[in-house]
Amino acid sequence: MRISLVISTSLMIQSLLVLIFCQGILGATFTFVNKCDHTVWPGILGTPKLDSTGFELTKGSSRSFQAPTGWSGRFWGRTGCNFDSENGSCATADCGSGQMECNGGGATPPATLAEFTLGSGSQDFYDVSLVDGYNLPMMVEVSGGSGPCASTGCNVDLNLKCPMELRVNGGDACRSACDAFKTPQYCCAGAYASPATCSPSVYSQMFKSACPKSYSYAYDDKTSTFTCSNANYIITFCPSSPPSKQSPKSNGSTDESGTESGSGSFSGSQSGSGSGSLPDSESGSGSGSGSGSMDQAMLADGSWLASLATGSSASNQPSRVIQFIPLMVAFVFFIGSLLKL
């Protein structure tokens, strides 16, 4: 009887340790927060598929999803949506599915994108991209984790600063130059499909000046790609206050708006299909030829090259594994006390 109890208890301890270990280092939790004064309908495109590909997020609400290790994908916020019994469309960043769920559809430009590639036993890579244009302020913040783990995003309403030639629906969104003019120079396509031949445009510089931590064109990796390990992530639409963790800057300090005062370095121009955290097959419906830099920055398994990592501010928050250590110790002592009875 006692032997049976010992074996059963041992199996329970092993199962708990495996569960805690998996929760600690596998994948990440993405939490969406809506601080806008209106409803937002987030869209999700990635592999493997998460619990939802599109949902309603009312003012002041939040919702979380668990993503497995190795997950690669992007998030965005749709606005002005009208769904009748799940069918309908959105005024900006519509995914073309005709439903609230995007079901594999990407964001129709212009759209602010948050892009992630979760490491498989290695660090995560993430960015906020304006390469497909802009429709909502968006910030990505980190919870826990180790490494640089900087916040990134655009905490500025670019719709108020958008040039007339790039405005959509009277100012609901702001197009990229590639999407608006569809020329190789703006899209970094054809003869301009390299950092050496694709120069920044006045439009990409406008985006970069307003939101220095966000991708503004295809070859913006050095100032716009961020890394962290064993972390969870908070994606906030219309953040009303500066993020708690600031990213390091190339020349200066972070100002009160959550953006950097430096303009960063430029080596390319705007592209039309995101900064490239997704493989081409998952890039959605962005315009233009795509990001040339991403083909060089992705390994065969979909992970990012470590050479694109930026930032130097270490995270002071514990990793997901460390957060579970007290629970593990308490459980072991509890089982030990039972065995003595």
Structure report:
With 341 residues, the chain is of the alpha+beta class. The protein has one domain (28-319): Thaumatin. 21% of the residues lie in helices and 21% in strands. The radius of gyration is 22 Å and the shape is globular. The protein starts with a helix and ends with a helix.
| CATH level-4 homologous superfamily | Thaumatin
Mean pLDDT: 75
| Overall domain count | 1
Which bin fits the share of residues in helices?
A: 10-25%
| CATH topology title | Thaumatin
Largest sheet, in brief, is: 9 strands, mixed
Report the total helices: 7
State the gist of this model:
This protein has 341 residues and is α+β, with helices and mostly antiparallel strands. It has helices at residues 2-25, 177-181, 184-187, 202-210, 221-224, 292-297, 320-339, and strands at 28-34, 41-47, 62-67, 72-78, 82-84, 87-89, 113-117, 124-129, 138-146, 152-154, 167-168, 173-174, 226-237. The longest helix has 24 residues, at 2-25.
List its salient traits:
341 residues, Thaumatin, 7 helices
List the topology elements.
Blueprint: H1 2-25, E1 28-34, E2 41-47, E3 62-67, E4 72-78, E5 82-84, E6 87-89, E7 113-117, E8 124-129, E9 138-146, E10 152-154, E11 167-168, E12 173-174, H2 177-181, H3 184-187, H4 202-210, H5 221-224, E13 226-237, H6 292-297, H7 320-339
Parallel strand pairs: 1-13
Antiparallel strand pairs: 1-3, 2-4, 4-7, 5-6, 7-8, 8-13, 9-10, 9-13, 11-12
Helix pairs in contact: 1-7
